[in-house]
Amino acid sequence: MSAPTPPPSYRQATSSATVAGSWKPSLSVVHVEDDGLSDVSGEEDIMEDFKQEDVDPAVALRLIAKGKATGNRPALWTRSVIQGYFFRLGQFIHRHAGKVLVAGLILLCVCCLGLRNIQFETRLEKLWIEAGGRLTSELEYIQKIHGTEPGASPLILLQTPEKSSSNNSSSSSSLLTHKAFLLHLKAALVATEVEVEIFKTTWTLKDICHRVNFPNFDETVPAISPALDQLYPCSIISPLDCFWEGAKLLDPQNPVVIPGYHERLMWTNFDPQNLIAALRRDPDAWPDEDRVSYNAEPFITFLNKMDVRAGYVGRPCLNVEDVDCPEKAPNKKSGDLPNISEIVSRGCAGISHKYMKWNEELIFGEIKKNRSQQIFSASAMQTIFHISSANALYERLKSHMKTSEDVIDTEWTEEAAAHVIDMWQTRYAAEVAKALRSDEARETITVYNANNLQSIVASFSEFSVVRLSVGFSCVIAYVCFALKRWSDPVNSYSGLGIAGTFLSGLCVAAGISLSAFLRMDFNALSTQVVPFLALGLNVFYVVQLVQTLSNLVDEEVATDDLTGECLKQHGLSTVVSTMAVSAAFFAGYAIPIPALRTFSLQMGILTSLSCPAMLILFPAIVSLDQRRRFARRLDLFCCYGRPNPLPAMQYSQAAVVTIGGPRARALRKSCCASPARHGRRTAQSCTSAACRMGQPMKLGPLDQRLMESGMLPHGIRDLSGSTNSIFRADAPTCCNDVQATCETIHVSQWFLRIYLRLIVSSYAKLFVMLAFALVLGGSTWGMTKVEEGLDMTEFIPKDTPEHRYLEVSSKSFAWYSMSAVTKGGFEYQNHQQLLHDFHHAFQRIDQVVKDEKGGLPSYWLGRMREWLSELDATFDKEYANGCFTSDGWNSNASSDAILAFKLRSQTGRDDNHETDNSQVVRSRLVDRRGIINQKTFYHLLSAWAGNDELAYASTLAMLHPEPKKWIHDHGDVRPRIERSQPLDFAQFHFDLRGLRTTREMLKVVDQVRGISGNFAKQGLPNFPSGVVFSFWEQYVHLKYHLLVAMIILLIGFFVILSIALMNLWASALIVLMTVILLVEMTGLIGVIGIKLNAILAVILVLATGIGLKFSLRICMVFVMGMGCKNRRVQHSLLMSVWPVTHAAGSMLIGVAMLAFSGFDFVFRYFFLVLTGLIMLTVLNTLVFLPVLLSLLGPVADLIPNDDPDRVPALTPEPQLSRAMLVRNCQRTGRIGASMVSLSTISEEDSISCQQIFLEPQITVETTTSFPANVNGTPFNSNGPCDEKGSTDASSTASLVSTFTVSTRAKVKVEMHRPGSAAKSGSSSAARQQFSDDDCACQE
Q1: pLDDT at residue 1082 greater than cutoff 80
Q2: What's the pLDDT at 1232?
Q3: 3-state secondary structure 249-282
Q4: Is the distance from CB of 1183 to CB of 1109 less than 8 angstroms?
Q5: N or C: which end of the chain has fewer CB within 10 A?
């Protein structure tokens, strides 16, 4: 008997034919349909025009082998192998769903144990400074020499007008008023009053501040040295230094008494000229109570070199009514208020006009000057208190033993010192707010604590349970809404979506835990971005798999095969898209920023972990949910069931219809026909048509044997009668269920139908391509507007004093410090001219702050040369005056000249510290070329560091090893000057101004790096250092790193896609869409004004993976389809539009939570940019890509020869799975009695063989004729819901309907020896399996 032609839906038939198993009646076992029933309404299903048959790759290979089609053999073979593995994996999961799920959940919970070991990194310099390369080696060199902590940190008091953001000059000029300065003074003086009680000790500003480095007079002037130690002030930079009130910040707690001076000294009454005059008086003229004999000349010399002038008493008073305002104040006698604009235009000075000169741009922000260079407007002003670092405070108090008894009891450590500093600064900020609480001034005060910045960032970097809960709940709500079937609570998938979302959340927690196990440091990105972004990406797979499951259920795939079919269709795309997204995240590691590298690795781990969870654990949940639906339990409320008014399968004289199948959909459509054709539907018409589907019949022996075999479907109860009949169920009471479904208006399907028809029209293609060209043109223009940069304020949480200060500072001050560092392995004494040239080279940089003469501030070697040159000049002058002899000096020689004599006598040899007085006359400390004596260079360095300590400290040279300090003693005849060690670190300090944009920053970085490189070629090992290079030099190579990452990633994508799809053209189109997405994203950030930086570079890398993730599904369905390009585009969109839409919606919900982050960079660079990325991706995927595929798409993997839109007929072939060896077997008679006796199968009467194997595939054809209804009413072929109730002449003439049912069964025959026949009688029975897709019903 010839095999019948297989039905169109042959994919499931062939897949079911390969699975052996016992005969289990279920909802999808038997499916008998009437082809005429689908045409009763004159229309097809609303989406039938766009559907295509999904061809199994194995079947496609057989079609190609038989010459019925052509196609891409490698792609089909690869896909058939991969899908076969996924199908078998799905079947295994379905059989052991509970075990797989429990084991997976236990494993994920074990992985979550690492959440206890999370460590946070909140130091900005460790997070946002480029790692690797020269910058890392330079920072490591500095840390190796001087440690990780600076010697002092700033505590800044910032004052701005209330309308600091306004561009109105009158608003900003209000700061140059007496009221504003008095308010600033009031806030600053709070610092001198704050005290904290810690460790049984009272701590004040004097205890924790960084003090000015004044020389030690213990040996030279021991009588006044203790008093001077109390007088030495804290290092403070303030606009108040322009006025007498600035001295109030420097005053010691108690007045200082200097022997020989009648007045108790405070900085507010300290007149250096009066003190010098008093100290130079003849001691005999002093009063008896002040008469002390000591030489104060070293101290007087020190005051003259400092250029202290009249101190603070010679400066104008802000408040002339203050009783302490000195008489020498310029406005004391007149009582006039000072002209603040004129005074501050020249800058301000501290105690020393030579070493403590504050540039006006350092203390005033965004100043504006008139033509006479007088400041008339300033938007901000600041006072800077230099606070000691924890290490410096610890060492200072440890050496001085200030709190020896109490502190030793409390274990004085660096941590204790840091606690003291933090407590004092916190108290100061609170006291300032308290002091100004009732002040009605318009100006505002902000206290910026550099040390507190880290703690604030740390507090905002922790996981927020509230934000995580809200974000998770929003995602669950969206998934529940998107997957809910309101009209069918049994076949709804919202519970499945919720379970998948919880599984995704558990995967996120497990991935974060694994990152902690790998000792990754967590930061703000790890807590603010990673959980929500990873959850959105994981829910993408949940929604996509649920949509695939829904399509398979509508196609009536066997329940046991649903999980396998889901993985078969969904597995390959999931693996490829996961690989793409993970590769994109891992490629982000190429951006050398530690915080972003950690973010990329964590997201890569989380994305990789989601793949096995979505392919193993979630299918197990799907299998468990199938049991709920089969038991007709309600979605979300599985404890409650829904009664089934209709049998699972309906049978009548007209047809046998499976609920939810294609014929049922035809019934529903017939019921929902337009009123113009069918008139108004009523319950009566429904009853008269569908409910009059005949009375129960007595069916024949065939049905009896089916009933005895246990093969009957659900709902069949009473079968008997003639063999010329077909089984049927009891007729339903009415078609209420069908009608209820019919009355549902599917607006989404209506829109989808319009969209699918419109997208392939010629006019739509032309419009889309023009719009596409316009978008690309705009994106290209936007790319030219992209600027590089990243504001420091974006790393700081909003609504904090630190954020406010950095915001104002970056806008108003634009003042930065930098250093040019020279390293070791260089002979400093022999290459002094090269050092001078190196320093002078920075004169060409416009942004470097110059002195009043337009030159660069002196650096350490220049200061040392000036000091030695002055000593040479003094010695030459006094030597000419006869103050020196060949062996020594006379009593009239000055201290400086004697010091020069001692230094000139040095030989440069360390043995016994020999001196040679004979070379004093001919040897000079500095020659005419300006070169310091090379032989005694390091001896002279020791003398300069010890005797000109203020000048040494003012250069900020940070020499290492620190020079040995030798202090000149006037009475020492044979000095022993210790030789300092050769230098391996020296610093050239510069100040930069006017740096407000990244372009200006990069310009300075480029110029400085150029100077550094030129002198490195000349043999001077050096490198620049400073915040400008630490945070902005990353932009120099940013585009290079981004380009390298993109090229590697795109090449990797192409290789992966080529292997997965075996279609180079399709792979190239996907990569092309990825490149187009990058162009659009770059243009978008240029248009909306977001700056390009390392964060955005990582997001652009991520965009490639997300873009490929969306495009892959459509392209895979396109190449697997059949027919012309337009038809394949429509089919691919039909299968992908809702998964893409819902997946994008779920991602948007997750990304939306980033809008509520406390960090501005999270909002700008993740929320805004990722939202734009998702929208552009959806636009490209659903609009641009379909048009591109319809025009330039690749050919299909399978092209039938006859009809390109239909799968050719293919006869199933016998499959030999194993051989059974039967030895010494001779048997006569029937081999194995079949449970079902089929009249169309011929059975052999005798078989005799030695070895036999038989596992044929049998096609059964049964023809049954139905007479008219028992009541004489002919059957209405126009449909059960047609109200006309009449037929045409041909239908009336023929009162019988003939159905041909074709099915396929597996019959397994086992041969046994006669002695074992009784034992194996049951196992040798033939087993038959019906597949609903193998049924072809013909009338």
Answers
A1: yes
A2: 36
A3: HCCCCCCECCCCCCCCECCCCCCHHHHHHHHCCC
A4: no
A5: N
